[in-house]
Amino acid sequence: MSQEHRSNFEFVEQYDHRISHLGGQAEQYVHTDPDSCLFKLRLMVEMMARRLVELQAPRLGEMDLISILRSLEQYGMLPKKQADGMHAIRRDGNAAVHGSETPVPTAMRRLRDAHRISGWYCSMIQRGATVRPGQFVPPAGPAADEHALAMHKAAEALEDSIDERRQATRDSLLLFADEEDVPTEVHRIVSELEGLDRVAQAAGEPLVDAEFVAVVMAMEMEQLLEHPTLGLGTREAKREAEKQYRKIREGFELREAMYAEERRALMLHHQRELNDRRGRDGDGSSPKR
Questions:
Q1: Which of 30, 81, 117, 203 shows a CA-CA span of 20 to 30 A to 7?
Q2: What is the pLDDT confidence band of residue 107, given thresholds at 50, 70 and 90?
Q3: Which residues touch 87 (CB under 8 Å, ≥6 apart)?
Q4: Where are the chain's structural domains?
Q5: How would CATH label the architecture of 1-140?
Q6: Among 160, 110, 154, which Cα is nearest to 136's?
């Protein structure tokens, strides 16, 4: 990040120095080391979540990040849009830590998400404050050659595709409304769960965290299975809900692994192209011995 560029996270300084510092570090890494950028953003999200817990629900403080985010959502303390962004940063940050190579456009998307979330976070920790995040300005990177531009364009298209598939699955998993016929909807949902792999393959992984969606669906299934028309007791209903939960979670984890593989394949493809081009250039310019 050039000295002329002011950090997008400077506005956070007066509310939380740690978050501002991590955001600034992530900006510095976004072009040169996108994996480290995502690691910083993931840590940033965890600090935000734990600060919110300290202020609003201290009893959740001993939980891990995914459980904290899920609980903040369930208690209405974390709006959907912010939850989606935080889960996306958590997911991609975890993938980077575990060795999945990250394209620069992916890191830039998460950096943009973090900037948006930071404005909301500041308004939450200091009620009544007028928070002015300003417009996000992508940090300038090194001049990109034709090959780098092509890779970035392909990575952007891939991320668009992943986001669309996640959103499609989220929409497909919306549960029934209160006025709908419960027994009919029970049958429909059970049928959809049995064909979960086919649904996931067609639609992709939801934008919100997979485990959270699975837990919500499992809770609904438990309530449904306790309905008098189904004749299941609480213990049996809980076992059935847990079984459905495992199926959903496994399906979503498979989808997320497939997205990571798509990113990895993209990076490998462009690296091979770059190596081939360098090889051809070398053959053309080096004298034969």
A1: 81
A2: very high
A3: 69, 207, 208, 209, 212
A4: 1-140, 143-289
A5: Up-down Bundle (1.20)
A6: 110
